[in-house]
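Good morning,

Attaching, inline, the backbone tokens for the sequence recovery test we're adding to the shared suite. The designed sequence is right after.
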């Protein structure tokens, strides 16, 4: 699969901070890519370099098969920052039309696409409203429309579901899927791990300016699994004593077991079958992205603290 974006050894240092410290990764065309990290990890600096707002101190960016040229390539990118940039006193329809024309659309093209998106996201009655009269969720929908209506190749969404109720969040999520299916590439940045787990194909986790994780969601969950399984029995045996596994948790007739090194899931099943017990369900327990995220970020911080010099 061809790539839309490749970052090679990007560095961006400020006076007292390594905001981005030698980060490399690539993003495939048509994918939904998660860029994750705690506050201060370097995500915003990365996004600003990808959009040409900042220039890297060193390293390079390849966009759609060639060196990134902010002056010419920025029109092919849609960026929805976490902090909104709408004109509060301007009418919504006029603002959308103005910003669409700034992105290279003619007035007639802009009107056609705005009407399409306003109808699609149930915003048709908003045309003469002012931004200052909108709720946070309504302004979020407007910002989304302005970001995508010129059909950019790369769409960057920073916390796109902030302020949205569940119905509108589902509506925007469906549009994100649709854009990816039509060939757009999405960079999705958020603190909500359950959203990443549901939406993204591939993720990169950054912390303290460095990349600490890079891979598909399924591969990462397999990489960090702890050999735990959930088993539900018709009834529990009077005594559970096995060299194959240890019981990590028990709730009614359901056990969470951790298989010991050198054994397999079949050995657990064999243990209970030999006792003529009914096995109602048996499932592997994979860690959530939230658990992986917390463990990795805390581990990185602990390592950093361990190597900090002691001030006398």
């Amino acid at each position: 699969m061809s790539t839309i974006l490749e970052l090679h050894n990007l560095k961006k240092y400020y006076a007292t901070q390594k905001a981005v410290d030698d980060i490399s990764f690539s993003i495939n065309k048509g994918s939904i890519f998660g860029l994750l990290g705690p506050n201060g990890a370097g995500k915003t600096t990365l996004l600003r370099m990808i959009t040409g707002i900042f220039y890297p101190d060193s390293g390079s960016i390849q966009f759609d098969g060639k060196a990134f040229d902010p002056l010419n390539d920025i029109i092919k990118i849609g960026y929805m920052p976490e902090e909104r940039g709408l004109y509060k006193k301007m009418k919504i329809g006029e603002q959308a039309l103005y910003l669409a024309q700034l992105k290279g659309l003619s007035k007639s093209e802009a009107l056609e696409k705005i009407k399409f998106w306003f109808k699609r996201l149930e915003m048709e009655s908003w045309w003469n409203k002012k931004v200052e009269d909108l709720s946070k969720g309504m302004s979020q929908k407007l910002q989304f429309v302005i970001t995508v209506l010129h059909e950019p190749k790369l769409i960057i969404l920073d916390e796109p579901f902030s302020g949205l109720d569940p119905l509108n969040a589902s509506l925007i999520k469906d549009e994100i899927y649709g854009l990816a299916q039509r060939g757009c590439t999405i960079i999705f940045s958020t603190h909500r791990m359950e959203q990443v787990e549901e939406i993204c194909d591939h993720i990169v986790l950054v912390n303290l300016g460095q990349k600490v994780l890079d891979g598909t969601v399924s591969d990462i969950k397999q990489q960090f699994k702890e050999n735990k399984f959930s088993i539900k029995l018709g009834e529990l045996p009077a005594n559970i004593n096995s060299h194959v596994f240890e019981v990590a948790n028990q709730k009614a007739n359901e056990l969470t077991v951790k298989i010991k090194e050198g054994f397999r899931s079949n050995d657990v099943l064999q243990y209970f079958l030999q006792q003529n017990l009914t096995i109602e369900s048996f499932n592997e327990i994979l860690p959530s992205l939230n658990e992986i995220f917390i463990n990795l970020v805390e581990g990185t911080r602990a390592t950093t603290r361990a190597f900090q010099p002691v001030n006398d």
